[in-house]
Amino acid sequence: MSEVLSAEQVAFYRDQGYLVLENRVPMEIIAQIRDEIARFRDVAAGMTASDDRIDLEDSHSPADPRIRRVKLPHTQSQVIDDLMRSDHILAPVRDLIGPDLRLQTTKLNMKSAGYGAAVEWHQDWAFYPYTNDDVLAVGLIVDDMTEANGPLMVFPGTHRAGVFDHHHDGVFAGAIDLQAAGLDMADAVPLMGPAGSISIHHARIVHGSALNRSTRDRRIIFYEMMAADAFPVVGGKGRWEGIEEFDSRLLCGAPTLEPRVVACPMRVALPDAPTQGSIYEVQKAMGKRSFEVAE
């Protein structure tokens, strides 16, 4: 029996590779998260370079603090960690990939009004393939997301199309050339909704988002997770620091020492690009870009 999703919603996810659930998280929690984001901004005001907590926009200065991404926000905020472990987030995921869930990573993408950086088209799976593909990302929409403020966009059904080439000039650039992949921007679907909604997308669906040129922020927290019996594959960038650390990321259910192995398309995410760090830095190795670059 499903906890929250209908049979139609589960079937849609299987076929299209994504879902949007409106008004999933209470606004009082969203208000607390916005307070946490204000705290992160205060921290950034004293920074001159990105570190292992906060990734700064290229146009950042201490006088005008600009955050591109907060890294692993669940380790920096009890509110964000508590939400990740709640049924607001986990119940629909259990309906899609089962009762035993493990964390891959978390990130808060800021996409601030007027300059929020674009993310080029990519598949999460290109970065971290696993032994099976019950791997997905839940996006918590912190601000109302419309076509104007750079929403997450996906190409429906591409999670069933294999793995596209994310290399450029012989290095892993973490982005694909739409024309070379045979994809047309006109076919992309924006995942929009009011604050408190969540999106869910399969790790292999092609997705990206444009620069935010609007006057409104578009902040989103991604909780990336997988079935507990999905183990990282050598050649990918999935975290592996030993079984103890791996099991410490269990979100619900039970761990296992028996990986479930399913035939899945994969490409090795190597050699590394010259610029390393967050996806924004890796994608600087991409030649032809689909989105405008922030100034």
TrEMBL record:
Q: Does the keyword Translocase apply?
A: no
Q: Which GO terms describe its molecular function?
A: 2-oxoglutarate-dependent dioxygenase activity; iron ion binding
Q: What is this protein called?
A: Phytanoyl-CoA dioxygenase
For activity, the cofactor(s) needed are: Fe(2+)
Ranges that cross the membrane:
none
Q: Keyword Oxidoreductase: yes or no?
A: yes
This protein's species is: Pseudoponticoccus marisrubri
Keyword vocabulary terms for this entry: Dioxygenase, Oxidoreductase
